[in-house]
């Protein structure tokens, strides 16, 4: 295959609407979408390695902080806020997604407006053997099972006296009690539990703060 496109410089490549590096006939290329088709621009291997293995820098951290505040922020607004071109910001966001630094874009719901006002943190001690059964119960299987319940928002394996911490939201005390008594304590892996209700919540977030400080 003959490629007649000019070799791109690193800065030119960063400013293009790029998606990922691909290999064609042992040449590393940038696929650039033009209309309904892609044009492949060859680059040198050191440049491909530099781009694909680039570390997260201060500009990436600024972009991540802004997207945490507003996941719907446009590339144009991101570019304005971080002082970069729109195409370069677009490339950076795609790169962060490909590296799974950005796991997904989602929405944050208000539990009070959706009948999930009651919040509890439940400590669980896992029983690894059940009398009369030879099978050793698995803590991982318990965590995978309990994570599927629609009231469970978080499952964390702990060190110390208790094995697992659950974050659970329910409509009211009665619904939470039903979850604990009728479901959780009926699981063969559960030895004992300790439930702590949240009386007030002052801060609750998945944001990673101070990224660009």
Give your account of this protein's structure.
The structure is a single chain. With 213 residues, this protein is an alpha+beta fold. The protein folds into three domains: 1-54, no CATH class; 61-107, Orthogonal Bundle (Arc Repressor Mutant, subunit A); 111-197, Alpha-Beta Plaits, CATH 3.30.70.920. It has helices at residues 10-15, 45-52, 58-69, 75-82, 86-98, 139-146, 173-183, and strands at 22-24, 27-34, 37-43, 118-126, 152-157, 164-170, 190-197. The strands form two sheets. The protein has a four-stranded antiparallel beta sheet. Strands 1-2-3 form a three-stranded antiparallel beta sheet. Helix 4 (75-82) crosses helix 5 (86-98). The longest helix is centred in the middle third of the chain and has 13 residues, at 86-98. The radius of gyration is 25 Å and the shape is elongated. The two termini are 48 Å apart.
The CATH superfamily of the largest domain is identified as Lrp/AsnC effector binding domain/regulation of amino acid metabolism (RAM) domain
> What percent strand?
15-25%
What does the main sheet amount to?
4 strands, antiparallel
Kindly report the spatial arrangement of strands forming the biggest sheet. Answer: 5-6-4-7
- String of helices and strands: HEEEHHHHEHEEHE
> Overall mean pLDDT score?
81
Helix coverage percent: 25-40%
CATH class identity of the largest domain: Alpha Beta
Regions with little confidence, pLDDT below 50 for 5+ residues: 1-26, 45-50
- CATH-derived topology of the largest domain: Alpha-Beta Plaits
Q: Name the structural class.
A: alpha+beta
The general outline is: elongated
- CATH architecture level-2 label of the largest domain: 2-Layer Sandwich
Number of domains: 3
Q: Output the radius of gyration.
A: 25 Å
Total helical segments: 7
Instruction: Give the N-to-C terminal Cα separation.
Output: 48 Å
Number of strands: 7
